[in-house]
Amino acid sequence: MSSSIKIRPSLRRYANLLMVAVMLGLSGAVAVAQQVEAGAKVEPVFREYKGVHLGMSADEARQKLGKSQEQSDQQDFYVFSENEVAQVFYTENKVFAISVMFTGEQSGAPTPNAVFGGAVDPKADGSVYKMIRYPKAGCWISYSRSAGESPVVTVTMQKLSPTQP
């Protein structure tokens, strides 16, 4: 059995988890008024991933990230290691969302401080979640860390739609 066949089911699982994170943000179900207000006053600390930023053309993003595992006009799926995968979403051939998933303690996942410029208090179980909208920058950023010995960290950055504050 080749290694690509072995890893394929887990890639699908990561892709599905990343899509859920992005869809939660799209629905606006996780917005908190205090976080919107905080984001209105500051610019995001986390502005790009591996040189790719929101609004960049699909061609430019692909040049920065290299060959994707799966590619389409709407999204690309990248596997950088067993511990780091990313999805880049496109609309009108421009990056409108980036979602990165890191697995395990040694994954190199960014801290909430690296994403937001400050600490985020963990919940009782050790998990962490925070989302901030940055209206002036035209985007929102979320950070999610699961509880447990092998945490999953997902960082998502997405352009605000014209109807979002």
Describe the structure.
- The protein is an alpha+beta fold and 165 residues long.
- The longest helix has 25 residues, at 3-27.
- It is globular.
- Helix content is 28%, strand content 30%.
- The protein has helices at 3-27, 33-41, 58-65, 112-116, and strands at residues 70-71, 75-81, 84-91, 94-103, 128-134, 139-145, 152-159.
How does the SSE layout of this entry go?
Blueprint: H1 3-27, H2 33-41, H3 58-65, E1 70-71, E2 75-81, E3 84-91, E4 94-103, H4 112-116, E5 128-134, E6 139-145, E7 152-159
Q: Strand content of the residues, in percent? A: 25-35%
End-to-end gap: 50 Å
Please give the number of β-strands.
7
**How helical, in percent, are the residues?**
25-40%
